[in-house]
Design goal:
- The protein is of the alpha/beta class.
- The protein has two domains: about 1-195 and about 375-390, 3-Layer(aba) Sandwich (Rossmann fold), CATH 3.40.50; about 200-370, Rossmann fold (3-Layer(aba) Sandwich), CATH 3.40.50.
- It contains 15 helices and 14 strands.
- The strands form two sheets. The protein has an eight-stranded mixed β-sheet with strand order 3-4-2-1-5-6-7-8, with helices on both faces.
- The longest helix has 22 residues, at about 75-100.
């Protein structure tokens, strides 16, 4: 079966730090590698930086087509939206030239959904569309203290249209699907919950000693890790403040590594180190070096960082609200703290710092939770969904 996947906003098999959506890259790599092994041929339409279509073939049955669209450097969400019409025209020209041997279309993130709608709904074409909500703009606005992003109005309008016109909707968790159905009633009855997997490299990371050796960090330091892109909802300043408070109170060698962004313009606080974007392949060593991982984001539809941390055997600190807060509160693997309570994160970090035995217990609990999330299960469910939803035809 031939499958057409729109991934305009992020480019699969590109390092997460090079684009705008690292978590989505991680997900698409695992998904595409898995469904290619299940004999579903896939063409991925993504943004290109040149003036002609460039094609790569990273796996059997998988083509990545980079379409001209005037993608700007450095990439921004506003720039991505302004380049979207040219991307759609490039896709329209490609499909007119190559034909449409596809039986189903899928799209990830709202701009990709917009492109799929323009080509397969507004033109009257009838291919089924499966859309995956990685995040929902309206839910970001519900998070306490959230600051609206670059283009919330356009995104909300487009996500509402996608909810009506897509044939199937995929969310990573039942909680996220329930919230999405509440916001977009048209999703009701066509939603599917398919959790992602986690790479085996996180289940077998380097030793703590090796991870610290690579970073040049003392074995005696209490090391916290926070991995997030620059975004007000990620609560980076709050985490830095909490770590500074603990350092002041206990007068100990407590360090925070911030991965995914550079230092703030006002300078780097004592005890905090900003590593900038890091290739995903290097993350297992960073997790293994840490004593705990901070995940203070106010809204995540899923959240790869808590999953990767627990797979690596590292306790997490997460807000009580959201998917991972509920999982940790029920099954362990870390501490779930009240995000709205003053000092909630600082107290969670202090508890982790003071109780090494609890951290060891949490590490084992986290590994058990992470064992549920495999790419085999994820891609088996996606393959079944694509095959069952596809336009009738031969299975090849």
């Amino acid at each position: 079966m031939r499958h057409l996947l729109f991934s305009y906003h992020t480019c699969p098999f590109e390092e997460p730090g090079a684009g705008l959506a690292g978590g989505m890259n991680i997900f698409l790599r695992g998904l595409l590698a898995g469904i290619s092994r299940r004999r579903i041929e896939t063409d991925v339409l993504t943004r290109g930086t040149g003036n002609r279509v460039e094609v790569s073939r990273p796996a059997p049955g998988l083509r990545i087509l980079h379409l001209p669209c005037g993608w700007s450097h450095p990439p921004t969400r506003a720039g991505a939206l302004s380049s979207l019409p040219r991307f759609i025209e490039s896709a329209r020209g490609l499909l007119a030239e190559e034909g449409s041997p596809y039986r189903i279309v899928s799209a990830h993130y709202w701009m990709s959904g917009s492109a799929a709608r323009a080509l397969f709904r507004e033109t009257g074409r009838t291919l089924p569309i499966v859309f995956a909500y990685h995040t929902v703009e309206a839910r970001k606005g519900e998070a306490p203290g959230a600051v609206p992003g670059g283009l919330p109005a356009a995104r909300r309008s487009e996500e509402e249209a996608i909810s009506r016109e897509a044939d199937r909707i995929v969310c990573f968790t039942a909680e996220d699907l329930s919230h999405t159905e509440r916001i977009f009633p048209a999703v009701s009855g066509k939603g599917e919950v398919i959790p992602p997997g986690v790479d085996d490299a996180f289940r077998h990371p380097p030793s703590r000693e090796e991870g610290r050796r690579r970073l040049g960090i003392s074995p005696r330091a209490f090391l916290l890790l926070l991995a997030a892109r620059p975004d007000p909802g990620k609560q980076i300043p709050e985490a830095v403040s909490a770590v500074f408070s603990l350092r002041r109170d206990v007068q100990a060698d407590i360090l925070l590594l911030v991965v995914g962004q550079g230092p703030p313009a006002e300078g780097t606080p004592e005890g905090v180190r900003y590593l900038g974007p890091v290739p995903h392949a290097e993350m297992p060593a960073l997790y293994s070096a840490a004593d705990a991982v901070l995940c203070p984001s106010l809204y995540e539809s899923f959240g790869f960082v808590p999953l990767e941390a627990m797979a690596s055997g590292v306790p997490v600190a997460v807000p009580e609200s959201g998917y991972w807060g509920a999982r940790v509160a029920a099954g362990g693997g870390g501490i779930a703290y009240p995000a709205g309570a003053p000092g909630g994160l600082a107290r969670a970090i202090g508890s982790l710092y003071r109780d090494e035995q609890a951290r060891r217990r949490m590490a084992e609990e986290g590994r058990r939770i992470a064992a549920e999330f495999t790419w085999e299960r994820c891609t088996e469910a996606w393959a079944a969904l694509l095959l069952s939803s596809a336009r009738p035809g031969s299975r090849r």
